[in-house]
Design goal:
The protein has two helices and five strands. The longest helix has 17 residues. About 20% of the residues lie in helices and about 20% in strands. A hairpin with a 7-residue loop joins β2 and β3. It is of the alpha+beta class. The chain has a single domain, classed as HIT-like (HIT family, subunit A). The N and C termini lie far apart (about 30 Å). The structure holds guanosine-5'-monophosphate. The site of guanosine-5'-monophosphate has 14 residues, from β2.
Length: about 110
């Protein structure tokens, strides 16, 4: 698998504004925020995309989502609400081939998404 910008962020080769890190996940601010709070959460064991989770250990997947929920809590988003988004593939408009969950908060979201 080719290195992506998120591999480089994880390795520390490219700077990022980290908001949470443990042995399993890294969360950092999106460089082009689409909401007052816009965080990206990535697993440290790389998956290129959401669809690869079919082959992953359920505990690992659960841990990823649990950490994302904790990050949203720690950023004070849980009471007012937030949106969590995972884009997959061309139609999903995924632009970075490293699985990531967007946490978007701090404003009212609309539906349907674009
Ligand atoms: P996708 O479209 O793949 O779901 O989302 C990729 C996200 O990565 C975009 O929201 C984009 O702004 C963000 N992004 C791209 N390059 C960088 C970067 O170098 N640093 C950070 N922090 N975010 C990035």
């Amino acid at each position: 698998m080719e290195d992506t910008i998120f591999d480089k962020i994880l390795a520390g080769a490219i700077p990022s504004d980290r908001v949470y890190e443990d042995d399993h996940v890294l969360a950092f601010r999106d460089v082009s925020p689409q909401a007052p709070v816009h965080i990206l959460v990535i697993p440290k064991v790389k998956a290129a995309s959401f669809t690869e989770l079919k082959d992953r250990d359920e505990e690992e997947i659960g841990r990823f989502f649990k950490r994302a929920a904790l990050v949203a809590d720690e950023l004070g988003l849980s009471d007012e609400g937030y949106r969590i988004v995972i884009n997959h593939g061309k139609n999903g408009q995924q632009t970075v081939a490293y699985l990531h969950a967007h946490i978007l908060g701090g404003r009212q979201m609309s539906w349907p998404p674009g």
